[in-house]
Amino acid sequence: MSRILVISPNWIGDAVMAQPLLQLLRERHPEAPIDVLAPPAVAPAWRQMAEVAEVLQTPFRHGALQLRERWRYARMLKARGYDEAYVLPNTLKYALIPWLAGIRRRVGYKGESRYGLINVMHHDDVPPRPMVPFYAALADAPEAPLRSAVPRPRLQVDAAQMDAAAAKAGLGADRPLVVFAPGAEFGSAKRWPPAHFAALAEAIVAHQPQAQIALLGSPKDRPVCDEIVAALADEPAAARLAVFNLAGQTSLAEAIALIARCAAIVSNDSGLLHVASSLDRPVVAIYGPTDPDHAPPFSSIAQSLSLRLDCSPCRQRECPLGHHHCMRGIGAGMVWQTLQPMLGGEGTVADPTSS
């Protein structure tokens, strides 16, 4: 039986936004197993996709060519009998792997002048597209017209996974859960201020006293989440006790399971935002230095907030002007007005940026 290999992007959000490509490949080749070669940090997201037969974890160091190691790994892939490979990263070193493995059909974008390594080459010559149709286009011939409609990304989480993750985190099974994703791997410019998150938490608890608020992220996001907790130090005990700082305390698989059971999520432009969208959870997405039209949420209930200032999107890791108005200017009150209908009922929140 022929097999298909998909080589994953290095970022969680990009991996999720590539999932519709697998849906289209499954429609075209319903009997062919689809395997994914992914970095360890991204692999758990692929394991929640119904179309994936097996996830293979890359053994390579980030940024290193490691030509000998790639040749050895390619020999293992060759023995698995892949007929075609879809190379989603645009780098030369990932295009080497299916070429070294002798995979006959190798599909991808031009990237780093990968002529020969990629033999079904797509060109992104149109104006910048949202990431979902960008990846989905690889399912069609390079000369094919762009699809007018593309499937939405979808992850699957079962009830046992959700219950286990909630129990481990110490969250009550009978209390509503709201998730905050305050981190951003790209850089500090994409982070909504911790004081704004804290004010939003206070409003949620005032509106729904039984609510639990989970701060999710990687160990790198722990300091930002600690700032949110510190900003709540002088607030009523109900608000302080409702917030669970889980950044760095959950695996990605557990974070996905917690998001799957949440009532809504408030997130910067980050991988967890796209995880929530793929689980069709209500989403409030906050954009500053990045373009909300490039990687928007795609849940049935979703709102993108962006001030669309003249200086944005700058796409910089840190604010080049030093003021960070694009994120600071999105007050907690603005986010609460967007989130509140998703949670139901009435409520207000004091905006710390108005004083």
Automatic annotation (TrEMBL):
Enzyme Commission no: 2.4.99.24
Catalytic activity: an L-alpha-D-Hep-(1->5)-[alpha-Kdo-(2->4)]-alpha-Kdo-(2->6)-lipid A + ADP-L-glycero-beta-D-manno-heptose = an L-alpha-D-Hep-(1->3)-L-alpha-D-Hep-(1->5)-[alpha-Kdo-(2->4)]-alpha-Kdo-(2->6)-lipid A + ADP + H(+)
GO cellular component term, pick one: cytosol
GO molecular function terms attached to this record: ADP-heptose-lipopolysaccharide heptosyltransferase activity
GO biological process: lipopolysaccharide core region biosynthetic process
Keywords noted in UniProt: Glycosyltransferase, Transferase
Source superkingdom: Bacteria
Family, as annotated: Belongs to the glycosyltransferase 9 family.
Name of the protein in its database record: lipopolysaccharide heptosyltransferase II
